[in-house]
Amino acid sequence: MNIPKITKIIESKREATDIKTITFHYPEEIESGQFFMVWMPDVDEIPMSVSYINGDIKGITFRKIGDATSALYKLKPGNKIGIRGPYGNGFKIQGKHILFVGGGTGVAMLAPAAEEAVKNSISSTVVIGVKNKSELFFEKRLKKCGAKVIISTDDGSVGYKGFASDAAKEILKKEKIDAVLTCGPEMMMKTLLDCCKNISFQASLERYMKCSIGICGQCCIGKGLRVCIDGPVFDGKTLKNVKDFGVYRRDSAGRKIQF
Amino acid sequence: MYLTFGVTLVDITTKIAGIRLKNPTMLASGIMDEDAGSMQRIIECDAGAIVTKSIGLNAREGYPNPTVIELNHGILNAMGLPNPGIEQYCQEIRQLKNSKTPVIGSIYGANTREFIELGKRMEDHGVSALELNLSCPHAKSYGLEVGCDPKLVQEITSSVKEKVGIPIFVKLSPNVTNIIEIAIAAEEGNADAIVAINTVKGMKIDLELGKPILSNKIGGYSGKAIKPIGIRCVYEIAKNVDIPIVGVGGVTTGEDALEYIMAGASAVQIGSGVYYRGIDIFKKVCVEIEQLMKAYGYKKLTEIIGVAHT
């Protein structure tokens, strides 16, 4: 049933500047790439991709950026939130060598996918692209699981100096990659798509969501593709035909906002 | 049009206020209609007509989430009339200008002047008809506050009718003491059709938090649970007015659609059904209508309209 179930926060952990993970009890099965609707009573309800899948315990990782995430950031263990879902499709984790490219907090939802890939004996390289060192998270987690981790920072404070997409381009030149899975700023994902001519490509998109059950039309892209149920993960073939990909999104009134 | 979907020789075309529909299934306002791409997808799913999101003069963000939740027998929503405003939305409508499927522009306003301006703008951008939303159950000073007063309904309807050349549908709320007098008021205001019903006011409370779940607290209930209410309203309206009626509320199957048609509707609108049966519900309902018509020996859908009254 698509109605929030109240659950208590088990742990609230700071990952980096303004970035936290919260975990909670939620026994529904979920695949990497799928998302929850997370309700902070009296504030808002927002879509959040799963970042930890540990049996009945699930987690989300987010940056404090608006009213809802700021409210979520303040919550402590024992505080109540509402969860519904999981929603959307997940990643298809196939290939011999997958390149994961996470920009900003995008790496949060890629982490469970990378862990699953390694578990399935798929070579996995993860690019974590952040503005600077203070925003870096999940480096240890991903190294520990057995993925090769490349860090890129806009200011060069750690790792490769430049954008995640540039770091990814270099890897694509050197290594035999047969799939790219990405989540992050849409311009970065669009740049990556343009580089993946013969490489399988999947990107997880973010849009303002309301119903999350495919009826309100708020999150639609292209020709009526609903990010909430037809996505949030779309393949390269689909995205090449979506004119708004990397161009604009819509705000809660439905006005176009250029990226 | 014969042989539309199935193999049976039945005619499921219909007409409302001179607008010919290839089948009686219309997309209800507020579902998959925020942009041209979404409406195009519904057109390709064989809807007989499209009703746009309800559009106002200025952009409106609507309420914070939760705005839509599923209950045991229906869906409860309080979106709060989010829309980008007529200026931006006209760009979406223009993209559908060459569509063979009629597009009906839904508008809401706080007063007659706003309805007139919105109606003219919609007409300029090529919609086939207007649907006046006089019945949103959860937006302050819009919708229901206008739509429960027969005098206002008549005044708004006749004023818009005088200024535009396209047919005017008036969408009514069941959240009134007497829906018949509102329907008669719309007819006296020279409406070309009645659309009934909008959602039924409702609320859901979470026991653990002891508070309503929707951010607006009160919402509108749609889906399967409200069908008998809609059928009753259409039946009562059909007894009292001569203009065509579009039935809406809980249509998920061909059986539901035919019930509305027998109660007096010339067509039906589908909203929550998109959730229950997927985006291809329009085609599914049409096939079921054809099968049922064949089973009961009906050849033309228009012959069944209002048979429950005889």
Describe the structure.
The complex is a heterodimer of chains A (259) and B (310). Chain A is 21% helix and 37% strand. By secondary structure, chain A is an alpha/beta fold. Chain A folds into three domains: 5-87, Beta Barrel (Elongation Factor Tu (Ef-tu), domain 3), CATH 2.40.30.10; 91-204, Nucleotide-binding domain of ferredoxin-NADP reductase (FNR) module (Rossmann fold, 3-Layer(aba) Sandwich); 207-259, no CATH class. In chain A, a hairpin with a 5-residue loop joins strand 17 and strand 18. In chain A, helix 4 (164-174) runs parallel beside helix 5 (186-195). The mean pLDDT of chain A is 96. Chain B has a single domain, classed as Alpha-Beta Barrel (TIM Barrel), CATH 3.20.20.70. Helix content of chain B is 33%, strand content 20%. Chain B is built from ten helices and 16 strands. Chain B has an eight-stranded parallel beta barrel with strand order 3-4-7-8-9-10-15-16, surrounded by seven helices. Chain B has a four-stranded antiparallel β-sheet with strand order 5-6-14-11, with no helix packed on it. A two-stranded antiparallel sheet of chain B has the order 1-2. Chain A binds chain B through residues 1-4, 6, 37, 39, 41-46, 80, 82, 209-218, 220-226, 250-256, and chain B through 30-35, 37-42, 53, 59-62, 64-72, 75, 77, 79, 82-85, 88-89, 204, 206, 208-209, 211, 213, 215, 271-272, 274-275, 279.
Any descriptors?
heterodimer; A: 259 residues; alpha/beta; Elongation Factor Tu (Ef-tu), domain 3; Rossmann fold; 3 domains; 7-stranded antiparallel sheet; 7-stranded mixed sheet; 6 helices; 21% helix; globular; B: 310 residues; TIM Barrel; 8-stranded parallel beta barrel; 4-stranded antiparallel sheet; 16 strands
